[in-house]
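ok so i was messing around last nite and threw this chain in just to see what happens. nothing serious, just curious
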Amino acid sequence: MNRDHNTDDLYSPFDDILKKLGKTRRKEAYKFACETRRFEIELYWKRATYFWGFLIVAFGGYGLALKEFGFRHIYTFVLTLVGFTFSLAWYLANRGSKFWQKNWEHHIGKLEDEFAGPIYKSPVDIKPFRFLELSSAYPMSISRLNQMISLYITVIWFFLAALGVSSLIGKIDPIACLNEIVIGVVTIVFIYTLLMCRFRGRRKVA
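result:
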């Protein structure tokens, strides 16, 4: 069963607008939706490559800092915060990309019947495919797998950062760990800013 939310009610204003457009305008809208969806998918994998590359460097840097300076060094602590922040940004970017992909897929679904037939929204029957047949195809969601991997890496970095914070608690003198405290506060503020980077939806036009 598809767990994605039913968006028919959310797009009702757009559906009303479509009914008022002429055939030429609807065809242009259909072409635009297809091209934009394709562009969103390209951007999705470009972003994934960017985050993968950076996090690999972060993991390598963390391992090197752990070996050279130990667990309680500021370099190790900073790398855990950087790794957590970027992995969280990757997870949020994956969710945002999924939203926009769904957005344009809905537009295509509303327009394709008139110009191409119900090709996109008529997938093959998945019942013949078996998960335990390891050498055969299976309808896995690639974007959802990538999203869950990004969440998994975010959790790993979170625990590494939490271990770093717990090591600072053992320092009695706050001045001795002032740099770590400042960096931690800046990271918290930045993460809050990331969480506020959400689409606010349509605004009512007078």
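not much to say yet. The chain has a mean pLDDT of 77.
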